[in-house]
Task: inverse folding
C-alpha cells in the first residue's frame, strides 16, 4: 500500500509556510527533515510534564524521565532489529557516532601496520575522523574507488581488503548520488578477513527498512534529525560483544559504576557502567531521545517499505521529468531503484549556488555545493552540484513545479 | 552614520570549487538595498523583476528579489566589502 503524502502533510505545520510568497517545497531532506506535530508535541509534553535528569534519582519525575529515555533506546533498537537497548548508544548524530568508534575502538585497536578501508563516496564525517586518528596511530587508509555513476567499484574494493584490513567504514547510501551500497556483500568480505564493518546509515535508516542483523554490520551510525526527529540526537548501534570490549569515549558522570578514591595511592580507581550508559557520559539529550522515539513511531506507522516505495516513485518521476530540461545534467545511478531519493544535478552554464538561489525565489529548497563530499566531486571533476532530496511529504506536483522553475533557469 | 551592517545580515562563503560569496540583506532593509543597487549598476538581464544579472565596476553578479546576491568573481571578502560599500553607502 502506497503512503498518502497529502494526508502526511497535514502533520507537518511548516509545510503550510510561504517562502518568498510561494508555498514551501522542501527538497533538502538529505540535510535535515521537517518535524511532524507528533514529534513537536512529544518534546513539548516532555518539558511540560516529565522533565528531570535521568538515572540515580529516586523522585517520581526522574523515574518518568528515565523510563522515557530508556524506552527511546528500546524503540530505536527494535526499529533496526538490534538485540536490545544495550546495543544503542545515543549520541549527537552520525558524526559523533563515527568519532566514537574512531576514539573508543580505533585508538586502542588500530596499529601502524593496519589498514582502514573507506571509499571516495563518503561524507567528510566518515573521512576526517580516520585521517585524524591515523596521524596518531599511523595506520594506513585506503579509499575504494567509485564508478562513473557514483556507485562503488566492488571489484576494486574487494581487491583492497586483506589480512591487514582491520576496519571497513562505508556509507549505506551516498549523500550525494543516493547510490545504495550492497552492505551484505561488503560485510561478507570484511568478515572473511576478520575485520569490522562500520556503516554510515545517515541516508539509509530514514529512507528504507534497515536490519542490522540482516546486514551483519558491526556498527551503524545515523542521525535523528534526518528521520523526523530533533537535531542533536543520533545513534550508534554496535554489536554487544564489541561494545563490551571497547573503552569509553567520553569520561564523566553517568558512564561510571564507581569512582573510588584510594587513600594509599591518592588516585581514583574507576569502573564503567553497563551498556549503553558506558558510552553516554554526562547528562544526555533526554528530550532529544524522546523526540526521536516519537519520530520512529511515526515512521513505523507509515511502514519503511512504504517510505522507500514513495521515494522511489518520486525519484523515478523527477529523473524522468528532468530529462525534459536540455541543460540539466543529473549525476549518479540512472536507475532509480538503485538509489534513495537524492538527485544531484547541474544546469549548464549556471553555478549550483545560483540554481539554489533561483529555486529559493520560488520557495523551493535545494542544497548546493560539495554536500560535505569533496573527494567525490573531485572524482566527477565537478566544481559543485545542486541536490534535490525527497521524503514522505513530497509530491509529484511539487516536482512539476520544480521542473517548471528549472526550465526558467535554463532560459536565464 | 550608515554602515554596511545596516543592510547586510550575513555573508556566506559557499563551499565548492568556485569561491562564491552570497550576501543576505536584512529583511527590513532588503527593498532599500535592492533599489540602491539597481540604481548604481548596469542591468544585463532580468526575469520578472525578481532576478537580475548586473555589472558594476567590471564585476558581474546576480541579485535576487528575495534579498540575496551572489558574487562569483571576487577572491577576497575585503573586495566584496568595498564593492558593497560603493553600492550601498
Result:
Amino acid at each position: 500500500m502506497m503512503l498518502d503524502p497529502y494526508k502526511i502533510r497535514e502533520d507537518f505545520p511548516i509545510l503550510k509556510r510561504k517562502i518568498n510568497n510561494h508555498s514551501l517545497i522542501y527538497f533538502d531532506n538529505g540535510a535535515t527533515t521537517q518535524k511532524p506535530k507528533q514529534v513537536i508535541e512529544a518534546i513539548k509534553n516532555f518539558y511540560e510534564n516529565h522533565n528531570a535528569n535521568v538515572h540515580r534519582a529516586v523522585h517520581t519525575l526522574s523515574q518518568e524521565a528515565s523510563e522515557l529515555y530508556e524506552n527511546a533506546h528500546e524503540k530505536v533498537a527494535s526499529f533496526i532489529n538490534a538485540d536490545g537497548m544495550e546495543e544503542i548508544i545515543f549520541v549527537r548524530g552520525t558524526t559523533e557516532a563515527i568519532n566514537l568508534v574512531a576514539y573508543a575502538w580505533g585508538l586502542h585497536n588500530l596499529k601502524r601496520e593496519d589498514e582502514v578501508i573507506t571509499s571516495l563516496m563518503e561524507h567528510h564525517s566518515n573521512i576526517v575522523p580516520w585521517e585524524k586518528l591515523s596521524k596518531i596511530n599511523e595506520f594506513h587508509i585506503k579509499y575504494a574507488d567509485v564508478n562513473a555513476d557514483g556507485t562503488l567499484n566492488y571489484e576494486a574494493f574487494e581487491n583492497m581488503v586483506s589480512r591487514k584490513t582491520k576496519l571497513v567504514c562505508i556509507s549505506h547510501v551516498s549523500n550525494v548520488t543516493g547510490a545504495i551500497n550492497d552492505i551484505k556483500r561488503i560485510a561478507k568480505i570484511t568478515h572473511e578477513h576478520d575485520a569490522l564493518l562500520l556503516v554510515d546509515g545517515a541516508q539509509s535508516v530514514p529512507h528504507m527498512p534497515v536490519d542490522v542483523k540482516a546486514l551483519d554490520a558491526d556498527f551503524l551510525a545515523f542521525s535523528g534529525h534526518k528521520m523526523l526527529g530533533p537535531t542533536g540526537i543520533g545513534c550508534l548501534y554496535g554489536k554487544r560483544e564489541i561494545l563490551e570490549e571497547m573503552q569509553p569515549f567520553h569520561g564523566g558522570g553517568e558512564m561510571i559504576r564507581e569512582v573510588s578514591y584510594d587513600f594509599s595511592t591518592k588516585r581514583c580507581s574507576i569502573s564503567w557502567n553497563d551498556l549503553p550508559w558506558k558510552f553516554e557520559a554526562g547528562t544526555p539529550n533526554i528530550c532529544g531521545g524522546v523526540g526521536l522515539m516519537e519520530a520512529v513511531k511515526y515512521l513505523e506507522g507509515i511502514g519503511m517499505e512504504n517510505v522507500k516505495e514513495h521515494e522511489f516513485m518520486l525519484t523515478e518521476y523527477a529523473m524522468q521529468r528532468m530529462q525534459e530540461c536540455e541543460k540539466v545534467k543529473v549525476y549518479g545511478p540512472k536507475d532509480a531503484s538503485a538509489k534513495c531519493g537524492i538527485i544531484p544535478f547541474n544546469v549548464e552554464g549556471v553555478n549550483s549556488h545560483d540554481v539554489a538561489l533561483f529555486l529559493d525565489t520560488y520557495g523551493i529548497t535545494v542544497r548546493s555545493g560539495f554536500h560535505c563530499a569533496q573527494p567525490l566531486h573531485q572524482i566527477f571533476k565537478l566544481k559543485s552540484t545542486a541536490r534535490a532530496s525527497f521524503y514522505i511529504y513530497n509530491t509529484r506536483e511539487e516536482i512539476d513545479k520544480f521542473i517548471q522553475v528549472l526550465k526558467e533557469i535554463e532560459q536565464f | 552614520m550608515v554602515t554596511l551592517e545596516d543592510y547586510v545580515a550575513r555573508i556566506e562563503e559557499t563551499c565548492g570549487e568556485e569561491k562564491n560569496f552570497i550576501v543576505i540583506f536584512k529583511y527590513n532593509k532588503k527593498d532599500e538595498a535592492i533599489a540602491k543597487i539597481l540604481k548604481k549598476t548596469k542591468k544585463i538581464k532580468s526575469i520578472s523583476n525578481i532576478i537580475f544579472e548586473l555589472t558594476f565596476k567590471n564585476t558581474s553578479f546576480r541579485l535576487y528579489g528575495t534579498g540575496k546576491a551572489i558574487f562569483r568573481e571576487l577572491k577576497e571578502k575585503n573586495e566584496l566589502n568595498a564593492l558593497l560599500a560603493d553600492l550601498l553607502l
User: Anything to note?
Assistant: Chain A has a mean pLDDT of 96. The CA atoms of residues 350 and 409 of chain A lie 8 Å apart.
